[in-house]
Amino acid sequence: MKVVKFGGSSLASGNQIEKVFQIVMSDPARKVVVVSAPGKRFAEDQKVTDLLIECAERCLSNLDSQEIVAAVIKRYATIAEELQLPSEIVSEIQADLEARLNGDRCKPERFIDSVKASGEDNHAKLVAAYFQEQGVEATYVNPGEGGLLVSAEPGNAQVLPESYERLYSLRDRSGLLIFPGFFGYSKEGEVFTFSRSGSDITGSILANGLKADLYENFTDVDAVYSVNPYIVKRPKEIKELTYREMRELSYAGFTVLHDEALVPAFRAGIPVQIKNTNNPLAPGTRIVNERDNTNGPVIGIASDQGFCSIYVSKYLMNREIGFGRKLLSILEEFGLSYEHTPSGIDDISIILRENQFEAELEEEITKRIIAELHADEVKFEHSLALIMVVGEGMRHNVGTMAKASKALAGASVNIEMINQGSSEVSMMFGVKEVDEKRAVQALYDEFIASVTV
Ligand code: ASP
């Protein structure tokens, strides 16, 4: 039995939904279909989720949102027309959206979540209606009724462990189950969404809960590429990689799959297959627990911009008990989360996402670190890119770091910092954003382009 998830671009138009129908029907093992909200049909198009967020925000600011509501409804109406569905389905969607917009606004973030979630909820109803029109037994499943319970964290919900057992009973239902992605219900019965692109997470949770044999994730690329195709032309496709490798890569910029979407499938030992709705015969990429390391130490190179580092140095830092804890607790008090902490004997760098703070905060943090920890130097560095070189094979290969540094030196890239993950599955390089592309190309040439297998 397979759980199969389709992303927004796979469901953006009537034509795309017809492809989805063919794919689902071509394999009787495909039992649960997880759907996203309608995505972009072309580069400048707008995702329904983005429209819904804008709409909810305007309502909260008491601004007119009629135009955006109309744009959302038009998207569904166009799809319904293309699929020759009865117009009642569009009236139902409109009534549902209006009811949400007239709902309780006392807790703004919850209001936004309820409006946001309508994108997938209504699309799942539309897709189910289309399948039914084709004479197929297909039922829309509401996540609350189906058993998907989540924490009450707006825009960032986490699945509650008891969901898995509840979801298992969905196996007994007959026919195809059409399940909206991206949200679940709290114990109090309120809607909460996962973080953006969270339908991937729903699919993984369902695969785990229903004990599927495979989780298929359909998107709009043939495979996971070994590097960002916007940086390196025609990069190699990855046929197979491990959960850990994929997690590292998606964390640092591989957007094919949400970085939190692997854990539920991984815990249940269910392989994940990435496939292309527009080219379903392409084999895609398989994500598994273990693989043969036959193609060199590195499987992929990811990079992401928008980081900064706080460099703190103090003579004899290594001997001072509690230094790290005190430093991190200052950041905690400011509500900041950090990504990495490479360190030396007398110094430590803390790498954070830059979008977390404004200039004033920088000054305050510096003052506190100096006053409370008596640091010799505190320095912020901005506009950093992190490059992750990822591969299980690095554990067994000698000299990977040396080769990487040499490749970067050859491309005249100054390495701002290095961090080798304790798992030895990844190496991280911090470089200036302006050097990012050159650095990635050099590492790709060194580790991937040169491997012939
Ligand atoms: N529609 C949601 C988003 O755009 C969730 C998803 O597509 O996975 O973030």
Automatic annotation (TrEMBL):
<keyword id="KW-0457">Lysine biosynthesis</keyword>
<dbReference type="GO" id="GO:0009089">
    <property type="term" value="P:lysine biosynthetic process via diaminopimelate"/>
</dbReference>
<dbReference type="InterPro" id="IPR018042">
    <property type="entry name" value="Aspartate_kinase_CS"/>
</dbReference>
<dbReference type="GO" id="GO:0009090">
    <property type="term" value="P:homoserine biosynthetic process"/>
</dbReference>
<dbReference type="GO" id="GO:0005524">
    <property type="term" value="F:ATP binding"/>
</dbReference>
<dbReference type="InterPro" id="IPR005260">
    <property type="entry name" value="Asp_kin_monofn"/>
</dbReference>
<dbReference type="Pfam" id="PF22468">
    <property type="entry name" value="ACT_9"/>
</dbReference>
<comment type="pathway">
    <text>Amino-acid biosynthesis; L-lysine biosynthesis via DAP pathway; (S)-tetrahydrodipicolinate from L-aspartate: step 1/4.</text>
</comment>
<dbReference type="Pfam" id="PF00696">
    <property type="entry name" value="AA_kinase"/>
</dbReference>
<dbReference type="InterPro" id="IPR042199">
    <property type="entry name" value="AsparK_Bifunc_asparK/hSer_DH"/>
</dbReference>
<feature type="binding site">
    <location>
        <position position="49"/>
    </location>
    <ligand>
        <name>substrate</name>
    </ligand>
</feature>
<dbReference type="GO" id="GO:0005829">
    <property type="term" value="C:cytosol"/>
</dbReference>
<feature type="binding site">
    <location>
        <position position="120"/>
    </location>
    <ligand>
        <name>substrate</name>
    </ligand>
</feature>
<comment type="pathway">
    <text>Amino-acid biosynthesis; L-threonine biosynthesis; L-threonine from L-aspartate: step 1/5.</text>
</comment>
<comment type="function">
    <text>Catalyzes the phosphorylation of the beta-carboxyl group of aspartic acid with ATP to yield 4-phospho-L-aspartate, which is involved in the branched biosynthetic pathway leading to the biosynthesis of amino acids threonine, isoleucine and methionine.</text>
</comment>
<feature type="binding site">
    <location>
        <begin position="5"/>
        <end position="8"/>
    </location>
    <ligand>
        <name>ATP</name>
    </ligand>
</feature>
<keyword id="KW-0418">Kinase</keyword>
<dbReference type="InterPro" id="IPR054352">
    <property type="entry name" value="ACT_Aspartokinase"/>
</dbReference>
<dbReference type="InterPro" id="IPR045865">
    <property type="entry name" value="ACT-like_dom_sf"/>
</dbReference>
<keyword id="KW-0547">Nucleotide-binding</keyword>
<dbReference type="InterPro" id="IPR036393">
    <property type="entry name" value="AceGlu_kinase-like_sf"/>
</dbReference>
<dbReference type="GO" id="GO:0004072">
    <property type="term" value="F:aspartate kinase activity"/>
</dbReference>
<protein>
    <recommendedName>
        <fullName>Aspartokinase</fullName>
        <ecNumber>2.7.2.4</ecNumber>
    </recommendedName>
</protein>
<keyword id="KW-0808">Transferase</keyword>
<keyword id="KW-0220">Diaminopimelate biosynthesis</keyword>
<comment type="similarity">
    <text>Belongs to the aspartokinase family.</text>
</comment>
<dbReference type="InterPro" id="IPR002912">
    <property type="entry name" value="ACT_dom"/>
</dbReference>
<keyword id="KW-0067">ATP-binding</keyword>
<dbReference type="InterPro" id="IPR001341">
    <property type="entry name" value="Asp_kinase"/>
</dbReference>
<dbReference type="GO" id="GO:0019877">
    <property type="term" value="P:diaminopimelate biosynthetic process"/>
</dbReference>
<keyword id="KW-0028">Amino-acid biosynthesis</keyword>
<feature type="binding site">
    <location>
        <begin position="219"/>
        <end position="220"/>
    </location>
    <ligand>
        <name>ATP</name>
    </ligand>
</feature>
<feature type="domain" description="ACT">
    <location>
        <begin position="389"/>
        <end position="453"/>
    </location>
</feature>
<dbReference type="InterPro" id="IPR035804">
    <property type="entry name" value="AKIII_YclM_N"/>
</dbReference>
<dbReference type="InterPro" id="IPR001048">
    <property type="entry name" value="Asp/Glu/Uridylate_kinase"/>
</dbReference>
<feature type="binding site">
    <location>
        <position position="225"/>
    </location>
    <ligand>
        <name>ATP</name>
    </ligand>
</feature>
